[in-house]
Design a protein that fits this description.
The complex is a heterodimer of chains A (about 200) and B (about 475).
Chain A: E1 8-12, H1 20-31, E2 35-42, H2 43-50, E3 57-63, H3 70-94, H4 100-140, H5 142-145, E4 156-159, H6 165-174, E5 179-181, H7 194-200
Parallel strand pairs in A: 1-2, 1-4, 2-3, 4-5
Chain B: E1 11-16, H1 27-39, E2 43-48, H2 51-58, H3 63-66, E3 74-77, H4 94-98, H5 100-113, H6 120-136, E4 141-146, H7 150-162, E5 166-170, E6 176-177, E7 182-183, H8 190-201, E8 204-207, H9 210-219, E9 227-229, H10 242-245, E10 257-261, H11 270-280, E11 290-294, H12 302-310, E12 329-333, H13 340-345, E13 349-353, H14 364-370, E14 375-378, H15 386-389, E15 395-397, H16 403-418, H17 422-433, H18 437-451, H19 454-458
Parallel strand pairs in B: 1-2, 1-4, 2-3, 4-5, 5-8, 8-9, 10-11, 10-13, 11-12, 13-14, 14-15
Antiparallel strand pairs in B: 6-7
Helix pairs in contact in B: 1-18, 6-7, 7-8, 11-16, 14-17
The chains are: A alpha/beta (about 200), B alpha/beta (about 475).
Chain lengths: ~200, ~475
């Protein structure tokens, strides 16, 4: 808890490619005098975001690394590591008795097919499933990782990109009185526009 | 024995998304058309945008405008899927909230395969509503005005289902980018397929100026025969031109007051305007003249600072080079509908600042003419508004954006304002009268009448 009476804003952005717009928005809101917490997907993304913002924006990450989960690890091993390891073992095995060569050639052919199918699986199936479920999976991690942020004292939650929507929605449900939005709206943080000023005079 | 039914009013369905209380710029044409047809004996049913979209999403409403709609006009409001406009996470449904990527994908697929516009759901809902109404009491004709162009697709679908003929009113351009004069979509975009499709079955296609009609004739020569022009105009019931006529011309010693009224946008030649006015002010006749800019600065808050800067104004809307003669240019902010008349009344010369080029008429030119003041043009030379201003006796056109020539036109307009006689003003307003909506909409109504089934007309079924 900051302990000051500045408006508090939580900005979340989890897209794989850094959303410069969301990060710059966090910086803008901080420069307008708000206390800003910017939540990124992992420490790598948080480090990248820090290059865009100054010390007034508190940058947090949901995960240490996005690639450390058991499913991701298994998929990476099955698709990218297994064919190489298996081929190496096969080469060593073939070096023995002469009858092993034709068996080895057939097995190597089988491995090449496996490798291609694995890449197709990775590109078409795994990536799409992962892309679909990633925002929701990320939202599951906020309980532990954001425990140190006092979400109840926020003035608004801003989902800065499409991947941040599930977490923004969960926070909106938990804190129904707090504004939760996907709009990066500058109006509450800035003074009247020249048009409004002129209209008032 | 067969009894003859009493004659009835012909029924028209008017698909006009923007309709009061919306205060979008296109509302005035829709409002005027519906009112005109009602006065001419048509039963008019307007299918318009849902109120929650107008109030909660765009927030651009003018409740007073509702009272200017003829009470005989029936207004139906079709539903609209607010997917792209909904930012409040509290209102998200579970699927969209937890699976935002497939949810967006589904929305995009609907756009790609059903209709390539965010208003497609409104169009489908409008057709459903129209079919229900048609079953109870049949429509005789349909007018669809775009944008949004989902209205065109609705008219086409309604025609396919019921055979009721329709007129397309291109209040705006669909496939032509008016600011770059280039096609608005790549060749493979479904908008082209849809445009050809809706044009093919239309009974008439209406444009707001000859330039736009010409572009579409070149693009779709097969349909040239049904393309016509019904210009925009000014609304005598909203703009009391007679009330402005009485003001005396400025005297030799009183400072000349130049005024611009309308939204100032980044597409307009604002630097040229500011520079030319500064140059014109060097002339002794305009030494203490000033230019007041009334209206919104851009459509977005972000554009305000840029526009002020381009106009050479500071954050308070004052000219940064102001001297002892007082401010040369002053930004005076938005004007409510009730104050518009006083802006015209207090102006000696009206500055017609317009962006874009060949295909843009600009709605404010009609009110400018109706005000009966000298008008000085600050826009590209080949703008479509020329069609309207040609023949206006108090038009001062530099025919270029050259600063010196613009300044000369401003000086000439100032002199004309000082020497203005009641006869000159009357001649100017006579020209403007030919652009009142009443005078212009007759062509459209005649076209609609010609679309009524000949047998029924001959049998005296219509009043």
């Amino acid at each position: 808890v900051s302990g000051d009476d500045r408006p508090r804003v939580l900005v979340m952005t989890f897209n794989r490619t850094l959303s410069e717009r969301a990060v710059r928005y966090a910086q803008f809101v901080a420069s307008e005098g708000a206390h800003v917490d910017l939540v990124m997907a992992d420490t790598l993304a948080a480090a990248e975001a820090r290059t865009y913002v100054d010390h007034r924006v508190n940058v947090h990450s949901l995960l240490r690394t996005e690639h450390g989960g058991p499913i991701t690890r298994f998929e990476r091993r099955a698709v990218f590591e297994f064919p190489g390891t298996a081929q190496e073992s096969l080469r060593r095995w073939q070096a023995g008795a002469g009858w092993r060569r034709p068996v080895g050639r057939i097995s190597a052919g089988g491995l090449r097919v496996y490798e291609r199918l694995a890449l197709v699986f990775h590109g078409w199936i795994y990536s799409n499933i992962e892309k679909t479920f990633r925002p929701w999976l990320l939202s599951l991690r906020h309980e532990q990782r954001l425990a140190h942020i006092d979400c109840g004292s926020m003035e608004r939650f801003v989902a800065g990109d499409i991947s941040a929507i599930p977490l923004g929605w969960k926070l909106a449900r938990r804190y129904p009185k707090i504004l939760a939005t996907t709009a990066m709206d500058s109006t509450p943080f800035s003074g009247p526009s020249p048009a409004e000023s002129a209209a008032q005079t | 024995m067969q009894t003859r039914r009493p004659p009835r009013n012909p029924r028209v369905l008017y698909l006009s998304f923007f309709f009061p209380p919306s205060r979008a710029s296109g509302v005035y044409r829709g409002r005027a058309t519906a009112n005109y047809l009602a006065r001419r004996g048509w039963d008019v049913t307007v299918c318009a945008a849902p109120l929650n979209f107008l109030y909660q999403v765009i927030g651009s409403v003018d409740e007073q405008l509702v009272s200017t709609v003829d009470p005989r006009v029936r207004i139906e409001r079709a539903r609209l899927n607010l997917f792209p406009w909904e930012h409040d996470l509290h209102k998200y449904r579970r699927f969209r909230a937890l699976m935002p990527i497939p949810s967006r994908k589904l929305y995009e697929l609907r756009q790609r395969y059903l209709f390539p516009e965010a208003y497609g759901s409104w169009g489908r809902s409008a057709v459903a509503r129209a079919l229900r109404l048609h079953a109870r009491q049949p429509f005789d004709a349909v007018i669809a005005t775009g944008n949004p162009f989902a209205a065109f697709a609705s008219a086409w679908l309604f025609n396919r289902l019921t055979g009721v003929p329709y007129v397309l009113d291109y209040r705006d351009s669909w496939t032509l980018d008016l600011f770059t004069d280039a096609p608005a979509y790549p060749p493979s975009h479904p908008a082209w397929r849809w445009e050809r499709r809706v044009l093919s079955r239309a009974s008439a296609v209406v444009f707001v100026n000859e330039a736009l009609r010409g572009w579409h004739v070149n693009r779709y020569p097969r349909f040239a025969g049904k393309m016509m022009v019904v210009p925009n105009g000014w609304d005598p019931d909203l703009f009391d031109a007679d009330g402005l006529a009485g003001r005396a011309a400025p005297t030799e010693r009183s400072p000349l007051r130049y005024a611009y009224l309308g939204t100032i946008t980044t597409a307009q030649p604002v630097e040229e305007l500011a520079a030319a006015f500064r140059r014109a002010r060097e002339h002794p006749d305009l030494a203490d003249a000033h230019l007041s800019l009334h209206g919104h600065l851009g459509f977005f808050r972000n554009s305000q600072a840029e526009l002020l800067n381009r106009l050479g104004l500071d954050a308070d809307g004052h000219h940064v080079d102001d001297d002892e003669r007082g401010p040369a240019i002053r930004y005076r902010g938005p004007v409510s509908k009730l104050e518009v008349a006083s802006v015209y009344r207090d102006a000696d010369v009206l500055v017609f600042l317009a962006g874009g080029a060949r295909y843009i008429t600009s709605g404010k030119v009609f009110e400018y003419m109706a005000a009966g003041r000298p008008i000085v043009s600050v826009h590209a030379p080949d703008i479509a508004a020329r069609e309207v201003l040609e023949g206006y006796p108090l038009w001062f056109n530099a025919n270029s954006l050259d600063i010196s020539e613009l300044a000369a036109a401003m000086i000439a307009a100032g002199k004309a304002a000082r020497d203005l006689t009641p006869a000159q003003r009357e001649a100017a307003q006579r020209h403007a009268a030919s652009f009142s909506r009443e005078a212009l909409l007759g062509t459209l109504e005649a076209k609609l009448r010609s679309m009524l089934p000949a047998k029924r007309v001959e049998a005296g079924e219509y009043t």
